Amino acid sequence: MEYTKIFDREATDARLRNSIVKQRVRLGDRRDGLVYLYTDDIELTVNVGLATGRPILLRGPSGSGKSSLARNVALRMGRRYYEEVITSKTQYTDLLWRFDLLRRFRDAGANTLKPDAEYIEPRAFWWAFDPELAGRRGLKLLQTPEQGPVDPSPTLGEEAVILIDEIDKADPDVPNNLLVTIGSSQFTVPYLNDLLVEAKPKKPEKEAVPPLVFITSNDERDLPNAFLRRCVTLELAAPSRERLMDIAAEHFGGDPEQRQEYKNIVDALYPELDSGAESSTAEYLDTVRACKQLNVKPKPGDPAWDTIVRITVRKATSARAGA
């Protein structure tokens, strides 16, 4: 693809290379963002999001690599990183700030009431827009909270990336309300006399750059049309046979002998993958880890292999069969 890249995965490889080597094998799901296998479409989508300032909606089945993309982009670009995992109870304001009404009520009953700023918890968008103001909970420069919150980002770059994970679990009003904040790069905090929080550069001489926002969906619920129209959308399919092998190589190393091992495992796990059967990256990597650590070969009929497959991949089938 020929275009001018804002985000270039090849040019940013060096930023992660040493860390990946040191932490190549990691148990459980990776949440460090060190490993991600890009396609041209994924890289272009990131660039379109950066160029337009629109949120990037990532859609696809579980295990297709939606949640890990945001953190990898943040690491490659040296940006601060914030994430919010949506639940059925998440309100739009939970992505901006939270007010601890219960603690305030207790303090009022004990005659130890503090200024309202003491009960405010800045959330992802506040930290992304203005981390200095978030650290003061909206207080003026000459004021300080009793115990100021600490920036939760693992890196302290000038710009930010936000991950809003599993947006389809939220109430339908949440996505539409979110677009107002993303579109204007600002919001107000009513508990602080409608304090205006807006995207600000860390250095006054620079322009404010809005955060790059990634939003994931498992398509468990239809999203509002107004929300969809204002997003850059990428459909991530379940990984193919070759992509699973490439992903395993990124995690565990990719010499010819290892790649043959990954091929044997994927062939045994998903013999019908090329004809439309779905795969899962997380389950495949669990199987590869188990085989490598326990020295088990992918041989159907072997009790150890059959048990590993049953407990890592065929879980849903086994549960239905025993119901």
Walkthrough of the structure:
The chain is of the alpha/beta class and 323 residues long. The chain has 13 helices and nine strands. It has helices spanning 13-22, 40-52, 66-77, 101-109, 124-129, 131-135, 173-184, 225-229, 241-252, 256-269, 281-294, 303-312, 315-322, and strands spanning 56-59, 80-85, 97-99, 120-122, 160-165, 186-189, 195-198, 212-217, 232-235. It has a five-stranded parallel sheet with strand order 2-5-8-1-9. Strands 3-4 form a two-stranded antiparallel sheet. A two-stranded antiparallel sheet has the order 6-7. The longest helix is centred in the C-terminal third of the chain and has 14 residues, at 256-269. The N and C termini lie far apart (50 Å). The relative contact order is 0.14. Residues 317-323 have low confidence and may be disordered.
Number of strands: 9
Q: Kindly report how far apart the N and C termini lie.
A: 50 Å
Which whole number gives the mean pLDDT? Answer: 85
What form results from the Cα inertia axes? globular
- Gyration radius, to the nearest Å? 23 Å
Work out the helix count: 13
- Which band does the percent of strand residues land in? 5-15%
Category by helix and strand content: alpha/beta
User: Major sheet: order of its strands?
Assistant: 2-5-8-1-9
